[in-house]
Amino acid sequence: MLNRIQIRDAQARRWRLRLFKEHLARYCMGIGGIAVIAAIALIFIYLVKVVIPLFMPASLEARASYPAPGGHAAATLYLAMEEQNEVGLRVTADGRVLFFKVADGMPVAEYPLPLPPRTQITAFTVSDEVQGQLAFGLSNGTVLLVRHSYQSSYPDGRRVITPLLEYPLGEQPLLIDSKHRPLRQLAAQGADDQVTVTAWTEDGRLLFSHLQRGESLFDEPAPLQQQTQLLEAASIRPDFMLLDREQRSLYLANRSGEAQYFDVTDKAAPRLIETLALTDGAQLTGVRFLTGQVSLLAAESNGRISQWFKVRDEQNQSHLQKIRQFRAQRSPISALAAEYGRKGFIAADEAGKVGIYYTTSERVLKVQRLVAQPITHLAIGPRANGLLAEDRDGALHAWAIDNPHPEISMKALWGKIWYEGYQAPEYVWQSTSANSDFEPKLSFMPLAFGTLKAAFYAMLLAVPLAIMGAIYTASFMAPRMRRVVKPGIEIMEALPTVILGFLAGLWLAPVVEDNLPGIITMLIVVPLGIVAFAFVWQRLPPDVRGRVPEGWDAALLIPVVVILGWAAVASSPWLEVAFFDGSMRHWMADELGIDYDQRNALVVGLAMGFAVIPTIFSMAEDAIFSVPKHLWNGSLALGATPWQTLTRVVLLTASPGIFAAIMIGFGRAIGETMIVLMATGNTAVMDPSIFQGMRTLSANIAVEMPESEVASSHYRLLFLAALILFAFTFVFNTLGEVVRQHLRRKYSNL
Q1: CATH assignment at residue 540
Q2: Helices (DSSP H) in 106-155: which residue ranges?
Q3: Averaged pLDDT for residues 214-237
């Protein structure tokens, strides 16, 4: 009796211990699952946190207001600020250049311009705002070129900014009009070796003067050689004149909106290209260059601002074309200021409002009233983080700007954008360049297209092979052979993708290029050869087929595939000579207009398809093999053939699992990085050709993240690309896993 009690107690202890272990395992699994979900959620939150600032609007913060330095005796011609927004510049109509502290308006330095006696300033223009070059037209028909700059020093550890005023061509003004008539409008560019000046005189003449310094045999600079001519083709009285930095294009416009565009590349023979209207009946209140001096900004009396730049027509002739317009302000635009390093600008109107715009992204980032009076002059800091405005009463107002990512918008990321120098709107990703005037082109469309293209060709190879292989392995293969084949294919998934990418880029790509006809022939001949061998095998006598054990038939295909593949590749030189004039690549380019890149979608499809096959095969094979055997046996017992049983019973039952396998394989292909990084040309082009490369979102992140500046627009865009990939792969993998778990629960009780 005692032994029985001891045995029952021992059994009870064992059951309690087992129950404890089961509960512990269940709680550990639950905690692990929750931890995984929490980690994924934290990753998602972090990505969103980095990305959100891209789409935030600009903000303005008032810093100071004070009377204009130098008094109101003379009107302001120009306002500017240096890079640190500490020292401002005010140029007055009486020939004074005043430097002052932006924070409080206190004077820093004052320089009178070296004007000849009894002459006044009658015209003014900003030649190059980035270089600080200004030009003054005088009442005696001369022009004075001036450049302002700033020098930083650190005595006693404190920064001191010293303003400088320079005269690139000397303090003696250049004579433009030999009749010494006052110059009323002016456009000028250049310094030192070459200067071009266009001036409208008081008596209605448009003078075009080009000065170029000749070669000198000594250290002394050679004198400037001047050539001045009358542009008789000008048919309007200009209220605005602009000459680009390259001294190739001259623009005239009047307040009625009529404009003329001259090609002045040949300084001896300027040509009128076209006459056009910049407005639709409204008055033109201002015209200025956008940064880079390629685009024109035209401001109107109805508050509309339009962007124009040159576009070539079918005859390769350049014509001005309106690209986009903004209508966020309703009062007449009274002042424009362009950013120094980006394609943004600020516009002020007569209602005292200021609008912050960005042309390429077509964003209106902020419209805010600064003062109650009309704003007459604007200056924006070189870093686009400060604003200086003068109102009609002569007061200056300093504001801080927070506008770090104006170039980003949904249209800029996913729509066609008309960039400067392009003949039509396009999808372009080009984030960096060596040119300081370069505008980043940040469309995700080429990257998304490349991602889907790479995944499509990978799935085109992987899905048929993996699904068909899974069907045969689960339904027809001998158990002993299955125990070798299935783990062998699954272990392929452990191969590092960096190795596959390395082999694809350095070995497979040259092999495919050298044997292109053979590779294409192999993709056709091998499947047909397998079908033909199967047909012949079924027609052989039963005693011959009976020598191969049931379920081992697939082993006979190994030499068939090897021989056919070798034969196809070996025939490549003969095929090129016989059908493609010795080179299939050149034949495609000449006859079909199809270019061939060595690292292309075909190589990516072969390499990435090889990487995706184990994922799809393993899940699909499990789904098919898990179909209850009594369904198979019942179908056969009712008279169905094995093929009918497979297609009408087994595959239908296993279809959710097969679908899940395909979805997860597709998610794997979308997120693949190293193979596409090494096996493609990494060119962000939207070309569906299988012989062209691409750039995917994941490869773009891997390539550009090391060179991106932290917290910059480029940096945050790469995080946005990661967020898109994260969401895409998470949705596909989750959907596939949900379907797979549903399948397991559905058949667990059968």
Answers
A1: 1.10.3720.10
A2: none
A3: 78
Does some domain include residue 3? no
422: how many CB neighbours lie within 10 A of its CB? 16
pLDDT digits (tens, 9 = 90+) for 234-271: 889 999 999 999 999 999 999 999 999 999 999 999 99
- Amino acid found at 137: G
Q: Does residue 663 lie within any of the structural domains? A: yes
Least Cα distance to 653 among 624, 633, 620, 630 occurs for: 624
Judge whether 316 lies within some domain.
no
Domain boundary among the residues 277, 293, 312 is at: 277
Cα torsion through 635, 637, 641, 647, rounded to 10: 10
pTM of the full structure = 0.87
pLDDT per residue over 269-294, tens digit each?
999 999 999 999 899 999 999 998 99
- Confirm if 338 and 323 have CB atoms less than 8 A apart: no
Cross-sheet strand order for the sheet of 296-300: 284-289, 296-300, 305-312, 318-326
Confidence label for 221 from pLDDT (cuts 50, 70 and 90)? low
How many angstroms separate the CA atoms of 558 and 663, rounded? 29
What are the distances in angstroms from CA 61 to CA 79, 392, 400, 402?
19, 21, 5, 8
Q: How far is it, in rounded angstroms, from Cα 154 to Cα 159?
A: 5
Task: List helix spans (H) across 400-515.
Answer: 410-414, 445-475, 479-490, 497-503, 509-514
Q: What local confidence, expressed as pLDDT, does residue 266 receive? A: 92
Looking at 214, 242, 277, the residue that finishes a domain is: 277
Distance CA(37)–CA(45), nearest Å, equals 12
User: 499 near 698, Cβ under 8 Å?
Assistant: no
DSSP-assigned beta bridge partners for residue 452: none
Give the C-alpha separation, 225 to 248, whole Å.
19
**Residue 215: predicted pLDDT:** 65
| Measured distance CA(24)–CA(125) in Å, rounded | 81
Domain extent for 478:
445-747
Per-residue model confidence (pLDDT) at position 744 = 65
Q: Tell me if 628 is assigned to some domain.
A: yes
Report the domain count for the chain. 2
Name the β-bridge partners of 89. Answer: 80, 99
Alpha carbon 681 to chain centroid distance?
17
Mean pLDDT of all residues belonging to the chain: 89
Q: Confidence class of residue 177 from pLDDT cuts 50, 70 and 90?
A: very high
